[in-house]
Amino acid sequence: MSKTFDRFASIAFLLIGLLFVIESRSISVSSYGSTVGPNIFPMALGAILILLSIRLLFETTKYKPEDGSKEPLQYKKFIIIFVSAAVYAGVLEPIGYVISTFIFLLIAFQTMERGKWLSSIIIAGVFSFGVYYFFVEFLGGSLPGFPQF
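Predicted structure:
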């Protein structure tokens, strides 16, 4: 990776994280049928983004000098994940959170590292069901469930 690119990216993501936290404070605190307000998720994402960008900024100070070789950009993987994220957003409501998240994660895992189907299926399944159960049952939030036929 490029040291200057990582520095600029970390500063940009830090600002985006701050924007998420600041703007999430203007969202209402509670929602109908949910004990968890709609402001919690963007605020948490913003905080995580801030922490990760600060870590990236500090890690750029530990980079070794570049030897001139550049890593090729992986446009194909980016396009596959970008298109699958757009499709995921479109099918989230009709087919539900668990199924759409499982399929999206499976596509993303296989795009990043081909093979290892069993571990990809297990991680995608545990994450999909785990987040759904934690958010809906434990926190009392609402997510699109399973499709109603």
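Summary: Residues 73-149 form one domain.
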